[in-house]
Amino acid sequence: MLNTTSFRATVIQAIVIIVAISIGYYLFSNVVANLRQMELPFGFDFINATAGFDVSWSLIPYDPSMSYGRVYLVGIVNTLLLSAFIVAFSTVLGFIIGIMRLSSNLLVAQFARWYVEFFRNVPLLIQIVFWFIVVFSTLPVPRQSYSLFNTFFLNNRGFYFPAPVFEPGFFWTFITAVLAIICFIILLKWSRSYHRRTGNRLPYYYPIFFALPTIVTVVFLLTGKPLHWIVPKLKRFNFEDGSFIPIAFAAAFVAMTIYRSAAIGETVRAGIQSIHPGQIEAASAIGFPRIKTLWFIIIPQAARAILPPMINQWLTAVKESSLAVAIGFPELVSVFMQTSLNQTGRAIEIVLMVMGFYMITSLTISFFLNQYNKRIQLQEK
After folding, report:
1. In which residue ranges of the chain is pLDDT below 70?
2. CB of 325 within 8 A of CB of 333?
3. Using an 8 Å Cβ cutoff, are 78 and 59 in contact?
4. Helix (H), strand (E) at residue 227
5. Distance between CA 266 and CA 263 in Å, rounded?
6. Nearest to 264 by CA among 230, 302, 310, 215
7. CA 94/CA 114 separation, integer angstroms
8. Residue-level pLDDT at 342
9. What percent of the chain is predicted at pLDDT more than 90?
10. Positive or negative CA dihedral for 117, 119, 120, 121?
11. Residues 212, 201: contact at Cβ < 8 Å?
12. Cα 294 to Cα 289: distance, rounded to the nearest angstrom
């Protein structure tokens, strides 16, 4: 038994784990001892202390009288919002660029090729600074803002747009909308199952699809239109009321979306090229249009090859959002790892909390996407 491979492997793994834990404990205890000698005790009690500083932009309510824990939450929400926008728009743009790379039109294919080669090979930080300084910072001042319908305004401070105000009766409209979405999802799955079994679509699919928004609209009207909008108004030197997005968010979003879409475009191109050309030829032989061939035949099969590297692209986009600190966007690194750290001096605790957020976020996204990836992969029988 002592000479078996499995026993030796178990012993080696146990030794490695013990050594790793011992090294980690030694480093941790050494850091704590050094902090105590410097009269800087280790702990997270500062989380409940009053922050005392303002944050330039926050999606959730915040004021300087709130705690460092609230600052941490503000940074997380801002980071997740920026990351979500980057992931969504870069994926759509990346798919378009990837498909354009394979176009039979030489001009379209070359444009997509140079788009990928240029943006993928210029450092992301340089692109962020370029969009912030050269593009968005040169927009006109608030009094000379670009206006759309006298409701939306764009200037060198940000993008201003109407803010919704929900009244108590809006609850019923919200519930009706949620139920309508659930019914639509159930109907969509039922329709697809019926189509696979019979080859025909449900005859009442489209009438019900249009009936659901009508029901929501009727409930909204019967409850007295419990929703109105506050339009931004120019007062003195800036706009007030409404909502706005700072130019730092816009610059980071545009730069990171373009940069990441170039990498995603190559991933999509490689995934589509992994499908045998005979699939396209067979679809063409039976009279399938090119768009339907791509949407119903090529992309569903290519998704099995595209998704694994795409997961890595999305995780990288989330971590790259921290580069927005270079232009002053109040994401997690900016408001917590800089301002809060400078005020409290709790460097190790704050760094650990920031690292923990990125690690948990990455592992969560990776877990759910890997589960979905297992579902769409071909299963051998």
Report:
1. 1-3, 38-41, 199, 201-206, 376-381
2. yes
3. yes
4. strand 227-230
5. 5
6. 310
7. 14
8. 83
9. 21
10. positive
11. no
12. 9
